[in-house]
Amino acid sequence: MEAVDAVGWASSGILLATITKQVHRQWMAGTSEGVSKWLFLGQIAASVGFTVYSVMVANPIFLVTNSLMLVAACVGLVLLFHHRHRERKKSAPTDPPRARPSAKGRAGVQRRAVWRAATPKDGTARRLWR
Known about the structure:
Blueprint: H1 3-29, H2 37-56, H3 60-91, E1 115-118, E2 126-129
Helix pairs in contact: 1-3, 2-3
């Protein structure tokens, strides 16, 4: 291996390690808050272009690096959509529980559920049954 190739492979390793760490952190945090889908879509477009270019100039260092960057961008985008879907599902109101006969009071008398809106510190509105 020539010195030029060693520099290329070392740089490729550093770049891939940082991107992989970021995607891993996003996965472990369970949230993609503050991350735009356009970041990943732009990275995918650029990685496809650079991968094609790497094949055209027959550069294995860039080919491997850009192919793996494409995979990392796809994984990041899938995680982003997964986290957003899960958060939308959590915040969606559920069907109200059915009223049950009260243990206290007369037999056959049912308590009515009271619908109220709660606003936690993060500012999102959630509906709760009480």
